C-alpha cells in the first residue's frame, strides 16, 4: 500500500519503519488526509501477521511535527458557527464527534495489538507528542524538543494528552507542564518519564528497533490489571497532598481567565478517577466545550492564524523581489542599537555598528558578547556559534563602512538635530538603492525623512526593549515611503524572526499609544485613592503580564515626565491631565523617583534577594479609599477598555488598517490580555454594541476619556464587527 505523506521502509524481520514526510511542506502537520492515512496504516498493520512492530519517525531534518494544522480547527469552528443556528444540538453533536477524531485514532493505535515506538528526531509538538504518548515506546534524539503548547492558543491537548501525561508522570509535574504549555528538552522529558530513551540523532531508529526486538509489549500499563497512578489515586493521602495546591497553581498561572487551562485541571482531576477509555471521553467533552468559547476562537485567530500570516508577509507589497539585507548598518550603539546589532548578527546578517567613537561602538558590541556568553553558559549555544556571531559585527566610528550595507537603521539619541546629522552622514556613504530606517519612538517619520536625499527609501522600524526578547516590530510608513523600503523592512524583520505590523505615521504609532493609556488609567486610579496594590493586582487579574506602575518603573518615570512636557509643548497645556502631571512631576523633581534604573520609582528596589515592593509614600499622596469600597471588577474593565478604545481610535484614524495587526501587535507589544485575542478582538468578542454600552457606563462614572468614538457608534448601529468591516478575517484565510 502507498501513502502520500508517509513512506514505509522494508520489512526487516517483522519491523517496519514509517517515515512521515509531507510533500510540499517544510514541516509535518496533521491534516484530515494525514489522519486518514495513519488510521489506514494502523488497520493494515493490525491484520498483517508479517508485521511484528512499527517505528514511527519523520523525514524532516530536525523536526517530527509542529502539531495540528490549526486551520483544521478553524474549519470546525466555521462549520459549527454555520450549523448551530439551524439545530444547535445537532451542531454540538457533530463538533463533539470531530473533536474526538484524532484521539480515537491514537487510541486505536495504542490498542491495535502491535507495538509502536515513536522515534522523535526533533521538534514534536501538540498532537504529534500526543501520538508519541500513545505509542508503546518513545525514543528521542538528544536535540529534540517536545511539548503540549495548546493552552497558549486558548485550547488544550485534546487527543489524550491530559490523560496519558498524568498516567506517566506525577500529577504536579503533569499539571505544571500542561498549564504552562512548556516545551521540554529530551532530557527533561526523560526525567519526567515521558520518554524512555535519549540517544544521538543518528542512533534513533536503531534504538527504537532495539526496543521492539527486546519484546516491547503492545499493551500500555494503564490497560493492564493492577495499574497504579504515579501519584496514587485522587482520593488518597497522597492525592490529598497534591490537589489542594492545584487550585493555587492554576489561579497563579491563569487568574482564571483561560477556559482551556480550567479544562486541563478538570480533565486531569476527573480523568484520573476513571479508566482510560472513559477518561478520554471526559477529555473529548471538555475539548468540544472549550472550542465553543470566545477565548479559544479569538486566541487561535490572533495567536496562530493571524500571526502566521503576518510572519509570512501578509503586508508585503507584491511584485517586489526578495530584499533580505545581507549587511545591515546600525547608527548608535546604545541600549537599542546594541540590541538590534545582536539580533541581526544572530540571524546571520553582517552588521556594521557605528557610534561616536571606537569605545562607544565597542561597548555596543560587548552587549552581544555578554548575551552569547550567557547562552554558552546555559548550554544553549556552542562557543563556536558565539564567536561566529561576534565576528559578524564590525564595531567602528567610520561611516565609510556603510558602503555595502543594504539597510541602515538609526538608533541615536531621540533628538531631531542629532538624528538629522547622522542621517546626512550615512546617506553620503550608502549605496544608491540601500534603505534607511529610523528606530525613533516619537518623532514623525515623514519629517525625519527630510534629512535623507530620497524619502521613498526612508522608513521607520520601531523595536521594543529588550530587543532580544520582544517579538514585535512596528514598521512605520512615512508619507512618501516606497514599496522597496517596505519590502526591505519586512524581509529584514522576517530574517530576524520577529513579527511585523505596518502602521501609518502618527505620534506614538500604535503600541505606545495604547500603553500610555494603560499607565494613565493607573494615574487616575491613584488620584482617586485606589490602594496601589489593588491597581497592580487588578491589571494582573485582567490578564496583563506586568502591572501599570511596575511597567512605568521599567520604562522610567522621568521618560513619562519628558513625554508629558513635550506633549504639552506641542499640543497645549490641556493635552495632559494636570493631576497626572502633578503626580509625575512630584515623583521626578521632589522625590527623585525615576524608576527601576534609580532603584526607586512607584516601587522600592531593595538589594537582592529581597523583592521589590510598592513605595509606601505613594499611599500618602492621596486620601485612600477603603479596599471594600473599590469596585475591583470595574478596575479590570477600565484597563482593558481604555487600551481597546485607543486601538479602535488608531483604526478609525487609519494609523492601523488591519485588525489583525492591532490584535497581534497588542499581545506581542505590550502583553494585552492574550485570552481576549488582542485589543480589537476584545471588542469584537463581546460585540461592538456591548462594548459601546460598556464605554458609556464608564464614561458616565469616570469621564469622557471613555466616550465611544463615532465609528464605534456607527458600527454598533449597523451590527458590524471590526473584522467584518476591515476585512482581517478574509485576509487571514
Ligand atoms: P541610548 O542613549 O542608549 O543610545 C543612543 C546611542 O547613540 C549612544 O550610544 C550614543 O553614543 C549614540 N550617539 C549619539 N549621537 C551620535 C552620533 N552623532 N553619532 C553616532 N552615535 C551617536 O538610547 P536608546 O535607548 O538606545 O534609544 C535610541 C533610539 O531608539 C531613540 O530614538 C529612542 O527613542 C529609540 N527607542 C528607544 C526605546 C527604549 O526602550 N529605550 C525603544 C524603542 C525605540
UniProtKB/TrEMBL annotation:
3-hydroxyacyl-CoA dehydrogenase NAD binding domain ranges (all copies): 328-506
Domain 3-hydroxyacyl-CoA dehydrogenase C-terminal: 508-605
InterPro entries per record: 3-OHacyl-CoA_DH_NAD-bd (IPR006176), 3HC_DH_C (IPR006108), 6-PGluconate_DH-like_C_sf (IPR008927), ClpP/crotonase-like_dom_sf (IPR029045), Enoyl-CoA_hydra/iso (IPR001753), FA_oxidation_alpha_subunit (IPR050136), NAD(P)-bd_dom_sf (IPR036291)
Gene Ontology biological-process entries: fatty acid beta-oxidation
Keyword presence, Oxidoreductase: yes
Pathway named in the protein's UniProt entry: Lipid metabolism; fatty acid beta-oxidation
UniProt-recorded Gene Ontology molecular function terms: enoyl-CoA hydratase activity; long-chain (3S)-3-hydroxyacyl-CoA dehydrogenase (NAD+) activity; NAD+ binding
Domain of life of the native organism: Bacteria
Keywords carried by this UniProt record: Fatty acid metabolism, Lipid degradation, Lipid metabolism, Lyase, Multifunctional enzyme, NAD, Oxidoreductase
Any one Pfam family match given in the protein's UniProt record, by short name: 3HCDH_N
Segments forming a coiled coil: none
Catalytic activity: a (3S)-3-hydroxyacyl-CoA + NAD(+) = a 3-oxoacyl-CoA + NADH + H(+)
Assigned protein family: In the central section; belongs to the 3-hydroxyacyl-CoA dehydrogenase family.
Protein known as: 3-hydroxyacyl-CoA dehydrogenase
